[in-house]
Amino acid sequence: MTGAQIVLECLKKEGVSVIFGYPGATIAPFYDALVCDGSIRHVLVRQEQNAGHAASGYSRASGEVGVCCTTSGPGATNLITGLATAYMDSIPMVALTGQVRSDLLGRDVFQEADITGACEPFTKHSYLATDTQELPTIIKEAFHIASTGRPGPVLIDLPQDTLEREFEGEFVYPDSVDIIGYKPRTKGHTLQIKRAVEAIAQAKCPVICAGGGVVSAQSRRELLRFAEKLDIPVVSTLMGVGMMPTEHPLYMGMLGTHGIYSANYAIHHADLVILCGARVGDRAMSKPDQIAGKAQIIHIDIDPAEIGKNMKADIPIVGDIKNVLKNITEKSEELKHTEWVTDLQQRKAEHTPVFTSIPGQVDPRNFMRTLSEMVSKRSKAILVADVGENQIWSANNFAFRGGRFLTSGGLGTMGYSLGAAIGAKLAKPARQVFAVCGDGSFQMMMCELATAKQHDIPVKVVIMENNRLGMVRELQDKLYGGRYSGVMLDGSPDFVKLAQAYGIPAEAISEDADVESAIDRMISSERPYVLVCKVAAEIPSRQED
Amino acid sequence: MRYIITVLVQNHYGVLSKVSGLIARRGFNIESLAVGVTENPDISRMTIVTDCDENGIEQVEKQLNKLIPTIKVKVLEAGAYIARELTMVKVSCNAKTRPEIMDLAEIMRARIIDVTATSMTLELTDTNTRTENFIALLKPFGIKELVRTGISAIELGANTTKK
After folding, report:
1. Which candidate in A78, A162, A384, A495 could, as Cys together with A406 as Cys, close a disulfide (CB 3.0–4.6 Å)?
2. B55-91 as b/e, with b when 16 or more CB fall inside 10 Å?
3. A500-509 exposure pattern, b = at least 16 Cβ within 10 A, e = fewer
4. CATH code for position B23
5. Are the beta carbons of A184 and A148 closer than 8 angstroms?
6. Would you call A181 and B66 a contact, using CB atoms and an 8 Å cutoff?
7. Closest Cα to residue A418, out of A390, A395, A379?
């Protein structure tokens, strides 16, 4: 067998059923093996970055390692944003890149790029596989590293000769890995768990802050039991949205600069904050010292480096959230924080704004509310939000009842949603998958409509069209005296006609009254679909000003 | 505060760039970094000297630990190690200054490793403070070139840094 066939066999052993990619000369041996074998589906994207986003969406929806593949040079450098996006959100992925023949490395030959070097800051680990014999070990390790501990993308750079060379001896895929310096800790320290149980028992106003770690650890149920048994209100970061049912009486919403009042009130008036897989990013907590000044902090994270990085922790617990939450819940007595919870519930109710419809435009916040009402009856929908105002409208107004919210929370990559939605839909074909974006982000990824069309992946794209880069415009309003610089999207095409040019059904709406029937048509369609909402430029990202 | 960190890493292609890249992008300040293979040829040891606060050193340690090829990270405790640095200095000299430099070398326990009509090269293996002192004393003669390896350190007593 050739190296390329070995790579393919290893992927099959890992249970890979779909690869998102874009071929080229150096990766051609692998593509040949792929087509000759025929058991792994290849989804051709239209730009390599989106292969990364699609693998990310696939991984997040399935809980498995997403796989993407590109050629050397520009193929690989285009993928970098995809990898960086996954890295910041701790998404398990394996990326295969072609590379020039190993005897030509370092000579600046055609389509050569030092991709392992370039991706150093954006990958959990990387390999330059110059030895065909090492391929099984490398691939086994890569999948292990990507999916364990704090998950993340792993890059395997494959020089063409590694793929072409014959593998000597019998192919055996290793059963286990032994990486001397990599033994992630999953069980929380008993003493720290005991301290946490005591601190929680004594707290009068505790609050749980659920971050992306809750999602990675697939610990939605453990979080719910923990919060309910101990009667502790929950706020979430952008990455944690959807883990607590939005309408749950203990859920106080998303916190941070773009969060809602009740969530921010809760975190700033708590006497105990339990951070669960949240890295205290500046968008979630811009002044962590203020919070830590008033409250005791319990910080649970599988990555020891996150504890104490942005906020001091009184009780650090390194471990898998699922284990740790289960442990704390079991060891704790039932608690009641009626006064604290009621106070927060009242504040949440008082600060839930009603958005009045304005003729000639769709209110994106009302749209998201209606969409969530309409889809929850049908399936546990997956909502992929892009980056910009659309991300905040989605996070704050779509009510999750068991569905999922996927977005580029860490890197804030515009153009994430369509690729990620394509990946998510392939992972969960029975679920409705929506990509919500702005007209700015859509134009960064609209080439992927062809991918959805070609492979018949029925994702639903909602474009909030306001002819502006709204989030930047808000910033310019606030900090630059309303001097709008480079934020007008004049010259944009008619998105309905564009979608139709791809053979994808589409329509545009400009009245709140039309929302329901339009959503109905979109959901009923069994094909990819584009729904354009004409949105007024003045509608802010924040719920309240 | 000045800290000495000793790091055991897998002796692989690209590991040095992984470590130095991490240190640079996390904004840690490095005074010196010395690398060499250990008694086990599969493992290298890096000795890193950094100047940071208590919070900073905790982060350096944790971030280094996150790298997959990292086997062990240890921040050496003040007073519990011996640290040395190798320095080679090429100084200008003439018939008049040569004996003075030789005197200095003798007092500082430096070796003279090369001599020409107009220059002398001295080698010193010593602590950081004594090395600085040595360099300051040589300065008036005119330092033509200075080469330092950075600090290597080993723990005092029977303790070792091992996995």
Report:
1. A384
2. ebbbbbbbbbbbbbbbbbbbbbeeeebeebbbbbbbb
3. eebebbbebb
4. 3.30.70.260
5. yes
6. no
7. A390
Domain membership of residue B8 (yes or no) is: yes
Place of tokens 């029937």: A517
Q: Is the pLDDT of residue A267 over 80?
A: yes
Which ipTM was obtained for this model? 0.86
Nearest CA-CA distance, residue A161 and chain B, Å: 18
Determine the Cα–Cα distance for residues A302 and A316; give it in Å rounded to an integer: 11
Question: Which of A68, A214, A215, A221 has the alpha carbon at shortest distance from A154?
Answer: A68
Task: Provide mean pLDDT across the span B75-99.
Answer: 95
CB within 8 Å: A181 and B9: yes
Express each pLDDT in A424-447 by its tens digit: 999 999 999 999 999 999 999 999
What is the pTM (predicted TM-score) of this model? 0.94
Q: What is the pLDDT of residue A378?
A: 63
Contact A308/B55, CB-based, under 8 Å?
Answer: yes
pLDDT tens figures, A20-29: 999 999 999 9
CB–CB of A295/A268 below 8 Å? no
- Paired with B146 in beta bridges are B89
Which tokens in the block code for residue A386? 């892009």
Cβ atoms of residues A250 and A256 within 8 Å: no
B21·A121 Cβ contact <8 A: yes
Cα–Cα distance between A205 and A337 in angstroms, integer? 7
Tell me the H-state helices in B4-163. 15-25, 54-66, 97-108, 128-138
Q: Is A124 on the interface with B (CB under 8 A)?
A: yes
Give me the residue spans of the domains in chain A: 3-164, 190-350, 364-534
Give the end of a domain, one of B75, B95, B129.
Answer: B75
Please tell me the CATH superfamily of domain A364-534, with its number.
Thiamin diphosphate (ThDP)-binding fold, Pyr/PP domains (3.40.50.970)
| B72–A124 CB contact, under 8 Å | no
- Would you list which residues of chain B are within 8 Å, Cβ to Cβ, of chain A? 9-10, 13-14, 17-18, 21, 25, 55, 58-59, 62-63, 65-72, 163
Task: Compare all CA atoms of chain A with the CA of B17 and give the residue at the minimum distance.
Answer: A117
Domain A3-164 shares a fold with domain A190-350: yes
Sign of the Cα pseudo-torsion (A244, A248, A251, A252, in order): positive
CB A283 within 8 A of CB A275: no
A305 with B163: Cβ contact below 8 A: no
Mark whether B151 and B86 lie in a shared domain. yes
Number of domains in chain B: 2
Pick from B163, B158, B153, B157: which is nearest to B75 by CA?
B153
CATH class of the structural domain A190-350: alpha beta
Q: CA A540 to CA A232: how far, in whole Å?
A: 31
Chain B: closest CA distance from residue A313 (Å): 12
A125 neighbourhood in chain B, CB within 8 Å = 68
CATH number at residue B120: 3.30.70.1150
Q: Residues of A with CB below 8 A from B13's CB? A: 128
